[in-house]
Structure formats: structure tokens, C-alpha cells
Amino acid sequence: MKNLVNYIEENLVRIAIYILLIGILIIFTFIFVKPFNDWSFTTNSELFGQYGDFIGGFIGTLFSLVAVLLLYKTLTTQQKTLARQDVAIHQQKQNSEIERFETTFFNLLKTQQEITDSIKSYYYSLNDNITTITYTFQGREFFAYSKSELWKIWKVIENDEYLGAFDEDYTQYIHHEIEQLYDPNSPSFISDIDAKYEEQAIINKEKLKLANKQYKISKKYWEQVHKFGTKKKLEVIYGLFFQRYHYVIGHYYRHLYHIVIFVEQFEKSRPEFKGMSKRYIDFIQAQMSSYEMMLLFYNAISFPKLLKLLIDYNFLENLAVEDLIDKSHNCIDGIKLKTRKKLLGFE
To answer: How far apart are CA 58 and CA 39, in angstroms?
Structure first.
């Protein structure tokens, strides 16, 4: 039945024409047949009256049906045209909204890049002579450096004992201790290979002491934090780092958070935009280095709202476990990082 109705609607004009032709054919047919025409070629007003009544009654009804069919077709065509116009207007409005969103979005991405490029920070460390040296980091270099800083704080907290704070006045004794390793007459003398390992261990220990000094990690604070679980330690480690470098990365992460929120709000603004956010989140990821993603991981642990967004959009899907300070840090609920081999499809 439904197919029949659809067929009639699709062929309404053709059916109307057929009915019209049938009506015209009937008109001309009955002009030449009895009783309306006896071929006497005389005018019979009664027959003409009957013929007129027939045309007005039967044929007029057919023509009225044709008129109704054509009127119905006209109305349905107008409705479809209006519906198509509504769809076109809606699509045009939707495209306009997407265009405005994308213009703002890519401007925000550009600003994020400018913020990244404008980053500048100074880093104090010890060289192999246990002398304090200053490095300057700009742009993405800072994020690469941040990994080594976080690693030092982590090692300080995880160490079996509190190492104390670095003291420049004590460096001469450290130099003497190292010299004794290479002096055959010293009781501390060992082979060159072992001496080099021991020397590097002494230098690394002093670097950790410098971290204690720079991040103001006292023995009392170390004893407190050392007992924490891994996740709580990560919050402390990043908190110490952020407290020292908030002026460098505070703006960076606030703006990044604003971009992700902007994408989320756009997706929620209309049902038809649902599912579009992933494309734009991928654009954000594509602009970030592995070191930026790494630091974002540790940043998000201390900021629940940002962490939720990262989980919802699987933002860190391309960050490898090996990019973290330690593999044990892959312990955040909702984020399970893969190994680099697995990301590359090798396992």
C-alpha cells in the first residue's frame, strides 16, 4: 500500500495528464455517437442540453479531479522546496558556525605556538668540575630540560637517605676526594675504570644535593614525602617544579586548557557537532613535542579538571611510557600509556 501511495505521488502529473486526455477523448467521442449525434445534421436543443449536462457532470468531475491533483502536486512541490531551502539555510548556518569556530581555533593554536616560542628560562647545574654553570633554554628546549629536572627531584625523593643541600664551600673537599681515587699512594686508590665510575657517582650525588637546595627540600620535608605513595609523590614532584618555574609555563598550560575547553563547548553547543572534537584535539596534539606531552602528563596530575579532559579526549594516546621519568609513573586512573613498540605496532 505504501509503495502504491509513493508511486501515485511520484507520478501525479502524469496521472493528471492521462485523466485530462481521457476527458478530452470522451468529449470528442460522444460528439459523434448516439444519442448526442444521430447524423441528421439538424439542431436538437434537447440533445445539446443532455450533452452539456453529461459534459458538466462527468467530464467536469474529471477535470475537477485533474485540478485537485495538480493543486496537490503544486502544494507538495512547494513544501519540498521550502524544506530544501530550510535544510540549505540550516546547513549554511552550520557551515558558518564551523567556519567561525575554526577561525578562532586556529588563531588560538597560533597564539599557543607564540607562547611556546616565547618561553625563556635559566637553568643552574654543576659541571664535571662541580662548578655552578648557567644554561639558557628557549622555546621547546625548556620542555626537554624539564624532564631532567623532574628526574632529579624524583631521585632525591626516592633516595634511601637524605643527601643534604649542596654547599659550594665544600667543593674543595669533593675535589680532594676525587683526586684520592686516582692517587696510587692513597688508601682510596682504585683502577681507572672504577675511579671514573666512582667520580661520576660523586658528581651525580652533588647534583642531587643542588636539587635539594634549589627546590628547598629539607630533611624534615624529605622524610615526610619519602613515605608517600607513587601518585602522591608525583603531585609533590611536579608541585616543586611548578613552584620554581610557574612564571615560565603557567601561561602555557592555562592557554592550552582554554583551547581544549573551547573545543569541548563547541561540540556540546549542537547535537550535529557531536564527534567533531577529536579532529581538533588531534590538531593540538600534532603541535606538541613528546617532551611537552610528558610535562602535560605530570601537570594534569595536580589539576583534576585538566586531567578529566585529557582522559575524555584520550589526549595522551601518543605518549609512550618511556617518555616518563619512570615507568612506575604510569599509574594514573583513566590513563594507560603504551610502550613505544606498541605505539609503533611492533608488539
So the answer is: 23
